[in-house]
Structures are given as C-alpha cells and as structure tokens.
Amino acid sequence: MDITLLHASLLLFTGFLAGIINTLAGGGSNLTLPALMVMGMPAEVANATNRLGVVLQAITAVFGFRKHGKLEFNDAGPILLPTVLGGLVGAAAAAYAPSAWIKPLLLGTMLLMALIILVKPGVVAPEPGTVARKVAETPSSWWGLGLAGFYGGFVQAGVGFVLLAALAGTLRYDLVRANALKMLCTLMFTIVALALFIYEGLVLWLPGLVLAVGTILGTHLAVKFAIHASAKTLKWFLFLMTLCGCIAAMLN
User: Fold this and answer.
1) Which of 184, 241, 215 is nearest to 24 (CA)?
2) pTM of the model
3) Which of the residues 37, 189, 233, 242 has the least number of beta carbons within 10 Å of its own beta carbon?
C-alpha cells in the first residue's frame, strides 16, 4: 500500500504520541487505529497493522526500563505464561470475530478502569514501599493476566490499563515497575498476535513501519520520564489517559 507524505506525517505524529501514552499508561492505539483507518484500511486490517508499531515500541521500552534497573525478571515466566496464552486466544478471536464487537469491549474497559482509578486508586497505584507478590502466591493474578492477554490479543487499544490493574492491583508492583512489566507482557503477546495476523495476510507493512518509527521515538522519551517522575504524577497521568481513552472510544 502506497502512502502520501500527509499520511506518513500523520502516522509519525500519532505514533509518537502513542509511544508516550502506551509506555506511561495505555490507550495509545485509540490514536493510531483511527490514523490507520483514515488511510482507508478496514478495521481488522488497521487492528493488525497497528501491532507492528506496538511490537517495536515494546522492544524499545523493555530495553529502556532494563537499562535503568526497573524491569524485574525474577517472576517474569509465571507472569508471561497466562498473558501470552490469553493473547493467542484473543488474537484468534480478533481474526474471525465481527469488528463490531471491538468498540463495545473497548469502551466498557475504559469506563471500568476510569471508575476504579477514581473510586479506588490504590488498585493501580500501590503506596510506595509496598512489597510485590509472586504469581505463585496470588492465584487470582492468573485470571487477571490471562484476561489482560486476551483483551490485548483481541483489541490492543487500552490493554495497558488492564495489565496495570493485574500487575499493580493483584501483584502490587509500583507504577514504574508495573509499567516495565506491562511492556514486557505487551511485547510477548503482541508478537503472538502479529504472527497470526501476518499469516492471515492482514498486515500492511509500509504504513505499519512508518507508524513504528513514531512509536519508538515516543517510547524512548517516555521511559526517561517514567524513571524520574513521582508516583503521584504517574497516577494522575494514568487517570487522565483513561478519561481520554473513554472519550476516544465513544467518538471512534
């Protein structure tokens, strides 16, 4: 698919913003999916093509958080297993389910997350000094991570909020470390989803790679901000992005 200079500029700009938003909170795909569809892509093709940017953005974030010592691998295996399995099932559902299901699921998730952050912010923003739990000690985290993976494989948009709820809410990681693990989980289940979408011939490479350049730049900047920002600042950014996600889901 050929793209014009205007479309390339749009993809770079929205990718840059999405890279920042996805790294610090979630919901960046609320920007990138409409940008791809503006080019005339069907919803299922835009949903698949968007995953290229997500994968490269997640790689950038994982290396960035790891470089600053904020990514912990000691419980990564048990965290990734239900997330990737859920992502595989979700991607299969997305490849064959009616695209009309995407918007209600997205909007419902955004509204639920906004309500949780407003009514019980400690769920996604544990107090400083809270000791993180292991998956083996928290059986309920399996369901939360599995559902987050399914949602990410199916929709992608807003999956960061769902993963933060599982990582910070059930396993009690602080927001910086939860964001780092969120990006690792996103990388793994999105690779699975992207492979399935490529097999189904739904990915358009040129616009996907242009979008990815923007997401990489935004992610690089966001990791540096996350490392130095206070927990309170990250919490309010998360709340603001959740509200924006709700509005975007209603308008799209």
Assistant:
1) 241
2) 0.80
3) 233
